[in-house]
Amino acid sequence: DEASRVVIVANSADADSVKLAHYYAEQRQIPVQNIVTLELPLGEEIDWHDYVKLLQDPLQRWLIERGWIDAIVMNLRDDAGRRKLSVSGHRIAYLVTCRGVPLKIRQTEGIPKDGVGSSKVFKTHQAAVDSELTLIATNETMRDGFVRNPKFMTPKPKAWEPETMVRVARLDGPTFSVIRRMIDSALQVEKQGLIGRALIDIGGPHAKGDVWFGETADEFLAAGWPTEVDRDRSSLKADARVDQVAWYLGWYESNINGPFALPGFEFAPGAVVLHLHSFSARTLRTADGGGWSGPLIARGAAATVGNVYEPYLEYTHLPQMLSRALLGGSTWGEAAYYAMPVLSWQSIVLGDPLYRPLKVSLQHEWERRAELPVRETSYVALHRMVRDLAAPEPRLDEILAEGAKAMRDYPSLALAFELAKLRDKMGDRAGAVRELGVAAYLTRLKAEDWGLMADAAETLTLWDDGAAAVKVWATILKQELPTQLRMIWLEQASATAKAAKQFDQMIQWDRDLSVLKGR
To answer: Where residue 96 falls among pLDDT bands split at 50, 70, 90?
Structure first.
């Protein structure tokens, strides 16, 4: 009955905020009386005094009056203005804040400092509003710094411990329409399954973080997901393969970049994504710039996390814990708090907390493939191939036969690529070249398929079919590519044409490259 115990918070001064609250309640069958509207400032940032006066106090009072929090209210306040309570527990599954509810609390002058330890960096009450609201049903008096999350790496609460911490998630993003898509795509995936690949970007500035992301990659590979792992020290390059990305976890750039910034790029429906950066959620109101969280939602992510101010590495969401919980069948809300070390700090959880990405099994996806578009079905077949190949003693002949049949019924370049690699592994290089040669006959591509085509061209070159590779490069270069990406691929295409002794084509591409460099 989790849906019946979700409380939704909206800003009565923002019509879209109220509209969003009602839309989410309707889609998830949450009782309309679970919606609370408060008149709040319209900006994303709020000071501590307004947070207490306009948000925490009235929300806390509403929750106590309606029996959501079991507490005795004292006629006392602490030195920061918060009402003191004697709390014995609550019955809230999730508190969900909607776009229009302030995002973060700025440092406010005139408030005595407390905090964790002696370090000055923790003597701050800068925090994510949502993270501060997790303590709305506690007797916690600390204001500066953070408190430990009792649900961190704890799959089940202890029966004898009263429930005091409240899990908070947020429905927010650049526009109302992209937030609604975030809700809708989660529901879509719970009916048809999460379809696509995992993309893990490991190269970052700290060794500990690289270990975390390495463990995340191991989780997906062990689970049999089609998984691309990038170990370059920089973030993903613009020419990286990003077709049908259902999972993305990586770091470390301040603003969305690389293939995700390409015009027209979109994640697979229901995608769960994370880009670790200290200020990844410094604003959610822009689709470009301002960090990663807002832009990721604008590009179709259904669930992500972020940080509003500097959290420091150890106090961010741990990616390997997030993936472990989700791959184990958890909801988004369960996984996010399993992976969050501290509360009353800088992290936020974006997306429907009731969303369960793996509610539908791979087997069920395959059994209902007639209801899916051809492209999605081909990625289900790809997933099945990768899973079977990851078995302790894979039966390669059977896997190849099943994959070849799926390719005939549900053709796609991604599936052809996987079949080609399998044929090559089995010693059939000629068959591998024929399989991948389908790329030479494609004409119209989605932006997220450009990198896949480039990988196909490079692989055909490696397998000594320069003529087919040149055809693939020609198709890629007919697309409306950004200038920087066109220059990268013109250089590679020219080298391929030279090796294939197609000198007229080489000369033309060299001329095109010279024109672009001369701009």
So the answer is: very high
